[in-house]
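Predict structure. Chain length: 219.
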Amino acid sequence: MWKAYLRLKGEDAGKFVEDFLRKNRFKYEKYSVRVDSETKVLLYRTRLGSIIIQYLHGGNCYVEIPLMLKPLIRLLEDKKIEEVQKTVSEKYYFKVAELQKNIWNLETLSYSFIASTVFVMILVLALSAFLKEYPIILFFLLVIPFIPLARFPSYSPPPVYAIVQYSRLRREFREVEELEQMVSKKVEKPIFPKKVAYILVLSIVVWALSITYALLSSL
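Prediction complete.
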């Protein structure tokens, strides 16, 4: 992730990024943190990862851009400046945007996990007749959920990492609530993704049942 403070207004950086994404035919989802109709942080979700643009005091901005978007990074490198000290409010607004980014990341992880576990289930049913004769197949079935199947942003970590990310996200919600007590103007926080928790649990159950069936078939 390329992180930098830029001598560029947040709204100008947003236009710059959107022009780049449209010109290069990137599909993207946009999210903004706003206070009294005033934008504080912009967040763009792309297939290569999320882009964050934070409006800062003094007409500057802070950006985070996935390293895979090198052409965009090269266009902004000459505007880079020294680190700008953020106010408490700016830290709070950025943390809220990070929550949304991590929710998107966790969704990608959970969908990848359920896809891999369903794939395992199908393979177990299809290969059950061969498991007794070729037990080595069981080993490959065990590791399939840990093989990258989707880009996050360029790979899909193992399911264990997805569970770690879920725990981390819960902690970040608490951190935002703590910062919220220190600012005068609060913003609407992203909703905790309960469906992601259900998907993770379902994935683990499907994977466990598939492996249990495979073990019984190999006996």
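Summary: Strands lie at 2-6, 29-35, 38-46, 49-55, 61-65, 80-81.
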